[in-house]
Specification:
Helices cover 71% and strands 3% of the residues. By secondary structure, the protein is mostly helical. It starts with a helix and ends in a 10-residue tail after the last helix.
């Protein structure tokens, strides 16, 4: 969870060094809970740190004192590893793209203004790159870890579906849904 947050802030900082000149987005952060702190490029977010500690402690207690059977623990680890692995991988991909564009600005020109709803949809679609092989692994080798991994991949899509629904509801209630009120 900490890697997810710090890589998001790093990506937001790097985006401003070239990529942001060409791709205008309403929000860099897709999760509405963290959009404000990421847009402010706050490296330290007490709410996120507290949430991370609470979830980590709850998982630790569950695993140590909850007497979970081994298959359930393996499933939980598969879910968490794939869920956060997909997210961290996406952040690293963004960071590498942003660094390349900052080093070679002549390789891109023009400007694209993208609605937040499109950014959410594109992000959802791009996660298929990881979700399909994870699902195939779970189908052909249905171990607790691989099944948990498939659940983790599904959670990424569930999170995106919630964000899309929340955005649509916010846009319908008076938000413009576009940059600069366009």
């Amino acid at each position: 969870m900490l890697a997810d947050y710090f890589l998001t802030v790093w990506g937001a900082v790097l985006k401003e060094k070239g990529y942001g000149n060409h791709f205008k987005l309403e929000h860099y952060e897709l999760n509405p809970v963290w959009q404000k702190s990421i847009s402010q490029k706050r490296w330290v977010n007490p709410q996120h740190i507290l949430l991370t500690l609470l979830i980590s402690c709850a998982l630790g207690v569950l695993l140590e004192l909850g007497a979970l059977p081994d298959p359930a623990s393996e499933c939980l680890f598969g879910c968490l590893f794939v869920f956060f692995g997909i997210i961290v991988g996406r952040h690293l991909s963004n960071i590498l793209v942003f660094r390349r564009l900052a080093r070679r600005p002549e390789e891109i020109s023009g400007q694209l203004v993208m609605a937040h709803s499109l950014a959410l949809s594109m992000s959802t679609f791009q996660y298929l790159v990881a979700a399909i092989p994870v699902a195939m692994t779970a189908i052909f080798s249905p171990t607790p870890f691989s099944l948990g991994g498939a659940a983790g991949a599904v959670l990424v899509f569930v999170a995106h579906a919630v964000w899309i629904l929340r955005y649509k509801c916010g846009s319908a209630s008076g938000g413009s849904g576009q940059i600069d009120g366009r």
